[in-house]
Amino acid sequence: MAVTIINMPTRIYNGTGALEVLAEEGRRLGKKALIVTTGKDMENFGLLRKVTNRLEGTGVSASVFSAVTPNPKTSEIEAGVRAFLDEKCDFLVSLGGGSSIDAAKNISMCAANGASIHDFLPQGDKVGLEKRRAVPHIAIPTTAGTGSEATKTAVVSNERNRQKYGVRHDCIYPMVSIVDPELMLTVPKSVTVDTGIDVFFHAMEGYLSNKATRFSDMVALESMRLVREHLPRVYEDGSDLDSRATMAWASTLGGIALDNAICVGIHGLGQPAGGYVDAVHGKSLCAVYYSYMKYTWQSDIPRYAEVARILGGNDGAEREAELAAASADRLRAFIRPLGLEIRLRDLGIEESMIPAIAESVLNTTRRTLECCKMEIGYDDIVAIYKEAL
Ligand SMILES: [Fe+2]
């Protein structure tokens, strides 16, 4: 049997009450933390206070950098690095969704290397891969979504060319991640589904990837099953702590699947499209998955059929090929009641933009296309986007 690689270098605490470990974990990393977060929501919901109280309780002081926005921008990373250095911080704590965590990952690498984020982008000068390092980072997700707490990927939107790029390096794994579903109880319904469906895509794409392993399959299949059952529940009742906790667990599993098997073309095409018009990540994926799956299901009938089985449904499909062909429709039937039936036009994308976005795919997410079971080139990308308009 082939050798299986398991990437899981982050110490992850996942479960109700996990935030209690922050004091001890923070104290080990130094005297001063920079908390990286987004705007006022964290303050309004009292989450920032919960974090600072636990740090200050053990003598760790904290500064707050709250200028991160969805699809974090290169200028925000630069400002975060300045804040970290000016405040003479020892480590980072990210609090929020994937935007906060990814921003902190990029800040951690730029601050440690004395480099600009532009150095790490495709057109940048590059800092030698072997020399890269990062300052310690504790990630505290407040959504069940990106799984960023378990990955070495950090997306950033380059304001110079409107391209959204995923920086990947071993040094940007968070040192510690604390995933506490109690912090997710106040997440609004729209954010709950936008991020919750991202979990499903991480797991499904990891499962469909040609980099999938017996380990990533195990976590991807479990994550898909849990989202299938529990995302509708948290959509109906955001105060359902058991289902919030299960979604938090599924999110971490999805992140592990993504980190070990990478993604395929739903992220490969959805992320650049969303980056081009600054759209919400989950919605960008929902705009392209259907045409992508319809285009590719024949490339791996057993796995698309398994996805269809997990999603369930009564469309008369029984044979393997019928199930695989029905997988996109079954996912659409799952997504529709969650209010996530979206087309590219709903995100503000016009047909005239497709060539530029397709080019952006080749520049930023080509790696995901290399994980697809079929070859996907420029013409295929354009065809899938046109179908998704
Ligand atoms: Fe994602």
UniProtKB/TrEMBL annotation:
<feature type="domain" description="Alcohol dehydrogenase iron-type/glycerol dehydrogenase GldA">
    <location>
        <begin position="9"/>
        <end position="181"/>
    </location>
</feature>
<dbReference type="Pfam" id="PF25137">
    <property type="entry name" value="ADH_Fe_C"/>
</dbReference>
<dbReference type="InterPro" id="IPR001670">
    <property type="entry name" value="ADH_Fe/GldA"/>
</dbReference>
<dbReference type="InterPro" id="IPR056798">
    <property type="entry name" value="ADH_Fe_C"/>
</dbReference>
<protein>
    <submittedName>
        <fullName>Uncharacterized protein</fullName>
    </submittedName>
</protein>
<dbReference type="InterPro" id="IPR039697">
    <property type="entry name" value="Alcohol_dehydrogenase_Fe"/>
</dbReference>
<keyword id="KW-0560">Oxidoreductase</keyword>
<dbReference type="GO" id="GO:0004022">
    <property type="term" value="F:alcohol dehydrogenase (NAD+) activity"/>
</dbReference>
<comment type="similarity">
    <text>Belongs to the iron-containing alcohol dehydrogenase family.</text>
</comment>
<feature type="domain" description="Fe-containing alcohol dehydrogenase-like C-terminal">
    <location>
        <begin position="192"/>
        <end position="388"/>
    </location>
</feature>
<dbReference type="GO" id="GO:0046872">
    <property type="term" value="F:metal ion binding"/>
</dbReference>
<dbReference type="InterPro" id="IPR018211">
    <property type="entry name" value="ADH_Fe_CS"/>
</dbReference>
<dbReference type="Pfam" id="PF00465">
    <property type="entry name" value="Fe-ADH"/>
</dbReference>
